[in-house]
Design brief:
6 helices; mainly alpha; 134 residues
Length: 134
């Protein structure tokens, strides 16, 4: 694994761990922020490791679509992509609810953490196919 890929993984893992700790502390908004950031960073690690020009976007839809162009596929539904993409700006700035029609809660946070874990597993599987240690 490239050194830079390892750093992206390290930071993504820190975001994932943070999301879990924040959920346990009932701090739902920052838990969601960290889940979104973990997913974004895991995906960007895939860009870096495979020499794909890094997509400067926070949109999980844009990142996954760009990676699909390079034959990388992830086990994340369109609904979950929409959920994660609804988090980025709304959870950072206090203009309305983080998620449309309802406030963040334990269930949504756990769902987002699980999505992040699945993306991590998918990226690790892609790297293992290339014979990389993760």
């Amino acid at each position: 694994m490239k050194d830079e890929t390892g750093l992206w993984f390290k930071y993504a893992n820190e975001n994932l761990i943070s999301a879990e700790i924040l959920l346990q502390s009932h701090l739902y908004n920052p838990s969601l922020q960290n889940s979104q950031q973990a997913i974004e960073k895991f995906l960007k690690a895939c860009f870096i490791e495979n020499g794909i020009k890094l997509q400067k976007s926070h949109s999980i839809l844009i990142l996954t679509e760009r990676l699909k162009e390079h034959n990388f596929h992830f086990s994340i539904s369109e609904d979950y992509i929409d959920l994660i993409d609804s988090i980025y700006l709304a959870s950072k700035y206090p203009f309305g609810s983080v998620l449309p029609d309802f406030e963040p809660n334990e269930e949504i946070c756990q769902r987002c953490i699980n999505i992040a874990k699945n993306i991590k597993d998918d990226v690790q599987a892609c790297l293992k196919k290339k014979g990389q240690k993760v």
